[in-house]
Design brief:
Low-confidence stretches of chain A: none
CATH architecture of the largest domain in chain B: 2-Layer Sandwich
Mean pLDDT of chain B: 74
Structural class of chain B: alpha/beta
CATH class of the largest domain in chain B: Alpha Beta
Helix content of chain B: 25-40%
Strand content of chain A: 35-45%
Distance between the termini of chain A: 11 Å
Strand order of the largest sheet of chain A: 2-3-4-5-1-6-9-8-7
Distance between the termini of chain B: 45 Å
Number of helices of chain A: 4
Radius of gyration of chain A: 20 Å
Strand content of chain B: 15-25%
CATH topology of the largest domain in chain B: GMP Synthetase, Chain A, domain 3
Oligomer: heterodimer
Largest sheet of chain B: 4 strands, mixed
Low-confidence stretches of chain B: 1-19, 41-55
Chain lengths: 251, 178
C-alpha cells in the first residue's frame, strides 16, 4: 500500500457496541478512568440525543421513530487529539489529525479494549466499526476542480445533465465477508481551509452488519481485517494526481 | 443497503427510459438498458428486508465529520467566518459548541425571516482557556425587537452550556450585513 507524507486523514474512529447481556453499571467509566488516567488525564462528558426514523415496507410503508439519549465519559490526552469515550456498553476510540500510523492507532484501540475487558465481562459484540474521515483539499484551476482527474468515486452526471455542479453528496455501501460486514463510503463537498481550493470529505465507515457474528475475543483481528479492506477501498477511490498531493513516498 | 437500492429500482417503470431490472437464473438481480435486452455490468445483491431490520445502521461517531458538516452548513447559509482556521480549531476542541452553534443559527434564520447575516468569530481575552465562540447577528435595520429576539434565542440554549466544554455567545455589533 502506498505511504503518504501528508495523509488526508483528519480522524480515525473505532467504535465497539457490546450486546445487551453485557453487565454494565454507572461506575464503569470511573473505573476505566482510574486505569488510564496517566495516558488520558483530561476528562469531559458528552451527551447525544438521536432521533431515528426508519421506514420499512414498500406497498404499506411503516415508520418507526426512536429517541435515544446517550451519556459518554470522554477521556483525553493533554493535547486532546486522542480520546477514549465510554458510554453504556459502548467503547469509542478517536484519533484526530495528525494520524501517525495504523499500528499506533491499533495499539490505542487494543489498550482501551484490554482495559475495559479487565473491568467488564464483555458478553458479545453488537456492532463494531472502524471509520476514517479524510479531508482532501485541491487547488482550483480556472476556478474549478475536475473530479474525474482525482477521484474514481465521484458523482456521475449523464450527458444530458450540466457537467458543472456545486455542492454534492454521494454514497454507497459495499458488502464484505458474505454480507457480515458493510462499508459505507460517503463523499461530500466541504469547507476549504485555503483560499483558491475546493475541499472534500471522504468517509469510509466499515462495520459489522450482523450482530454477534464474531466472538468478543476476535474483535482486534476483525479490526485488522477491516483496516485492510478500508485501505483498498480508499486507494480504489483516488487517482495518481491525488497521491501526488498527499506526497506519496516513492520506494 | 443493497436491498434499498433494489427496492427503489423495482419502482422505476421499465421501458420508459429508466431501464429495468430482472432476476437472472442465478438468482442475482441484473439491470438492463431501457427497451433493450443488453444487460449492464451491474449485479445487485438481494438482501432479505427481514434481516435488514435488525442490522445496526448507525454510523461510528466521528467528531470531525460533525464539525466539518456544521462548518459547511454555515458556509451554505452564507455566514462570514472570520479566521476560519481559528474557528475550526476551536470547534474541534469544543465539539459540543459546534452542535449548539448549528442549532442556534437555524433559529436565527427563522427568527429573522432569513434576512440576518451571521458572522462567527473566536474571541480571545488573552487569558489561557478563556476563548469562546461568538455569533454576531447583522440585519439591515436595527430596532428594539432585534435585541429582544436575540435574548429569546439565548434563553433557548443557555442552560445547555452548563455541561459543555467551551463557551458561546450570541449577540450583535449593530453593523450592517457585509
Amino acid at each position: 500500500m502506498p505511504k503518504y507524507n501528508n495523509p488526508p486523514i483528519i480522524e480515525s474512529v473505532c467504535e465497539i457496541r457490546f450486546s445487551d447481556d453485557t453487565n454494565w453499571d454507572i461506575t464503569v467509566p470511573g473505573l476505566i478512568f482510574e486505569d488510564i488516567r496517566n495516558e488520558y488525564p483530561q476528562k469531559e462528558q458528552r451527551t447525544t440525543q438521536e432521533i431515528n426514523i426508519s421506514m420499512s415496507g414498500i406497498a404499506f410503508p411503516r415508520t418507526r421513530s426512536q429517541i435515544k439519549r446517550q451519556d459518554y465519559a470522554v477521556f483525553l490526552t493533554d493535547d486532546k487529539k486522542s480520546r477514549i469515550q465510554v458510554g453504556p456498553r459502548i467503547l469509542l476510540i478517536n484519533q484526530l489529525k495528525p494520524y501517525s500510523a495504523w499500528n499506533d492507532f491499533k495499539s490505542q484501540v487494543n489498550y482501551a479494549f484490554q482495559k475495559l475487558s479487565v473491568r467488564v465481562e464483555l458478553a458479545g459484540v453488537q456492532r463494531i466499526g472502524l471509520r476514517y474521515i479524510n479531508k482532501i483539499e485541491i487547488p482550483m484551476e480556472n476556478n474549478k476542480v475536475t473530479l474525474e482527474e482525482y477521484f474514481e468515486f465521484r458523482p456521475f452526471c449523464g450527458e444530458r445533465l450540466p457537467q458543472t455542479h456545486g455542492e454534492f453528496i454521494v454514497g454507497c455501501v459495499f458488502p464484505y465477508s458474505g454480507g457480515r460486514d458493510l462499508c459505507r463510503i460517503e463523499f461530500t463537498s466541504a469547507m476549504p481551509e485555503n483560499e483558491g481550493s475546493l475541499a472534500f470529505l471522504l468517509s469510509l465507515d466499515y462495520f459489522l452488519a450482523k450482530p454477534r457474528s464474531i466472538p468478543v475475543t476476535q474483535s482486534i483481528d476483525w479490526i485488522e481485517e477491516a483496516h485492510g479492506n478500508i485501505e483498498n477501498l480508499f486507494e480504489g477511490c483516488i487517482l495518481p494526481p491525488l497521491r501526488e498531493i498527499f506526497g506519496e513516498v516513492k520506494e | 443497503m443493497a436491498s434499498l437500492v433494489s427496492h427503489l429500482l423495482f419502482e422505476t417503470k421499465p421501458g420508459r427510459g429508466e431501464g429495468s431490472l430482472a432476476i437472472g437464473e442465478d438468482d442475482q438481480l441484473y439491470s438492463y438498458y431501457s427497451e433493450s435486452n443488453t444487460p449492464r455490468n451491474e449485479v445487485y445483491e438481494i438482501v432479505d428486508p427481514k434481516q435488514e431490520e435488525d442490522l445496526p445502521q448507525e454510523e461510528s461517531f466521528a467528531m470531525s465529520a460533525q464539525v466539518e458538516y456544521i462548518l459547511r452548513y454555515f458556509e451554505m447559509l452564507g455566514a462570514r467566518i472570520e479566521s476560519p482556521s481559528k474557528v475550526r480549531d476551536y470547534l474541534y476542541r469544543c465539539p459540543g459548541i459546534a452542535i449548539l452553534a448549528g442549532f442556534v443559527s437555524e433559529q436565527i434564520y427563522n427568527g429573522f425571516d432569513f434576512k440576518a447575516q451571521l458572522s462567527l468569530e473566536v474571541q480571545d481575552d488573552e487569558v489561557p482557556d478563556s476563548e469562546y465562540l461568538t455569533i454576531y447577528v447583522r440585519v439591515p435595520e436595527y430596532n428594539n425587537s432585534v435585541m429582544d429576539r436575540i435574548r429569546k434565542i439565548r434563553e433557548s440554549y443557555y442552560d445547555s452550556l452548563n455541561n459543555m466544554t467551551g463557551w458561546f455567545l450570541l449577540t450583535t455589533d449593530f453593523s450592517s450585513p457585509r
